[in-house]
Hints:
Layout: H1 2-17, H2 20-28, E1 33-38, H3 58-65, H4 70-74, H5 80-93, H6 98-111, H7 123-136, H8 138-148, E2 151-156, E3 172-177, H9 179-183, H10 185-191, E4 193-194, H11 198-204, E5 209-210, H12 214-230, E6 235-238, H13 253-260, H14 268-289, E7 293-295, H15 316-321, E8 327-329, H16 337-346, E9 350-353, H17 357-360, H18 362-375, E10 381-382, H19 390-413, H20 419-437
Parallel strand pairs: 1-2, 2-3, 3-6, 6-7, 7-8, 8-9, 9-10
Antiparallel strand pairs: 4-5
Helix pairs in contact: 2-19, 2-20, 3-5, 6-19, 7-8, 8-19, 12-14, 13-14, 16-18, 18-19, 19-20
Amino acid sequence: MKKYLLFLSVLLFAACQQSSYDKIRNYLETIEIVDTHEHIQVPGDSADFQFFNGISYFPADMTSAGAPSFRELQKNGFDADKLWELSGSYYNYSRATSYHEQFMNTLRILYDYEKPYLRKEDIKPLYDRMLANNYRNYDAWFASVYKKGKFKTMILDQYWDHFNIDIDTSYFRLVCNINSLVMLVSEAAENKKVTSASGLLKLMNRKEIVAESLDDYLSVVSSVLGIFKNNGAVAIKNTLAYSRSIYFEDVTFEEASVLYNKKVKLEWADRKKLEDFIFHHIIRQSINLDMPIQIHTGYLAGNNSRLDNGQPMKLLNLFLKFPKARFSLFHGGYPWTGDFVAIGKNFTNVHLDLVWLPQISKTEAVSTLHGMLDAVPYNKIMWGGDVSWIDDSIGSLELAKEVVATVLSERVDKGWLTKELALEIAGRIFRDNAMDFFKL
Ligand SMILES: [Zn+2]
């Protein structure tokens, strides 16, 4: 009995001694994750897998450091010595970044790789295991990684196939990425038909889509959105910042009609106006269909991009014009994180998604989440991983949990939050807010 009492008091003491960080971190391990945004794809040809190029995001840091293009490295098949000889120094220069941390999280959790940095001699054995998992045993490997991350569902943005509605709903939820639909308006205007988008033709079950007038094209757009909605899509996605500014100005139907009927090859400025008009139409439809709209704001993946395309403040006219639409802004608007927070605070129709921000900059994610909790009600904050490779869903989730647990525990330790409220906020960010927002 004495021994038992002693054991109990040791347990109790240990529980009391647990830091706020550990308590929140442990709680996060019990939560089923509703992940608002992923691009997970079945791996293609194994010959294209050259280790670094398979990882989500980190290769861009090596490129930024000065590494040669991975296409160059791929020419004669995989060779770990050659890879290191050409890119090892650039790997080393990139070891302090958050992209790198995501990568090391993945290696530690899925491949038991405990070293803080990658060593040349470990590349080949890791490559062999990754190849076996992802190219020879993908279905079982995917299911085991998904289970390890305790994912409940992932909202899948198929940027490689905007019009595909056939996805595995036991793992994913459909989102309608409208980039192609918006940009195809120029082809429709110039030719009065669309023939170039095979995915759209397949979806509509037609050989070509005739659109003699702007009204005809608007009904194509509405039909596509309706088909997606009927097939379970939970949201609309706009990633146009990768190709143009996210300022979608107000264009009247009359002005858009004149442009549509011009019968000449459209100038860039005219194309933009038509695209702006189409996106306004899509927002109107999103209200009718009760589908929220996720919008890419801020930083762009890759290298050498027009980073100013995605400034969140460029969207203010839309938030004001469509009070009944429901918007979710992505990526903390980085580097315009202050603007992003202010918008979430001010607008009743805007939610904020931390998606990808922890990987871009862990420190910025910590300070932005502090700013969000200072200013924005916590029912408006969500998270997504934003990776293409299932392995990286684990590395990115780990990074996000570390960010959220750091911020919440710092606030608990300062007496700004109770532990109970901190746990509630953690659950809201990783699950409940997305369940409510997307009506899952
Ligand atoms: Zn994305």
